[in-house]
């Protein structure tokens, strides 16, 4: 599987609510950096996040651009959906992935398009 296919697969699985599939997109010792959270390291932390801590109830990722450089993938797009409190969400994001040789994420960093300054 190419790096682009691996990353696109992640978004399809997360949008489908497949926690096991999503966590399997990460290497066992992967680190996920997400604003507002301590770094999530390893499958147990990722399962806790995707299985309950995540504030998103449902929705979809709309990908505008993927840039691939070997095993590094940059993604720009938006998330459109509903939060667990029932409010609508539409937020731009950028993700930066580093994958291992099997196409599993070693690191992921997310940034969100929200007013900050």
Automatic annotation (TrEMBL):
Gene Ontology MF terms in the entry: isomerase activity
Keywords linked to the UniProt accession: Isomerase
Residues in SnoaL-like domain copies: 7-106
UniProt cross-references to InterPro entries, sorted A to Z: NTF2-like_dom_sf, SnoaL-like
Pfam family, one: SnoaL_2
This protein's record includes keyword Nucleus: no
Name of this chain's protein: Ketosteroid isomerase
UniProt source species: Janibacter indicus
């Amino acid at each position: 599987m190419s790096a682009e296919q691996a990353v696109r697969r992640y978004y399809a699985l997360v949008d489908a609510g497949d926690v096991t599939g999503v966590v399997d997109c990460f290497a066992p010792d992967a680190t996920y950096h997400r604003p507002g959270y301590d770094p999530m390291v390893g499958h147990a932390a990722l399962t806790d996040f995707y299985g309950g801590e995540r504030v998103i109830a449902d929705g979809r990722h709309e990908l505008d651009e993927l840039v691939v450089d070997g095993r590094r993938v940059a993604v720009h797009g938006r998330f459109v959906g509903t939060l667990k409190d029932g409010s609508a969400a539409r937020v731009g994001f950028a993700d930066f992935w580093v994958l291992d040789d099997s196409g599993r994420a070693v690191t992921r960093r997310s940034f969100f398009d929200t007013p900050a300054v």
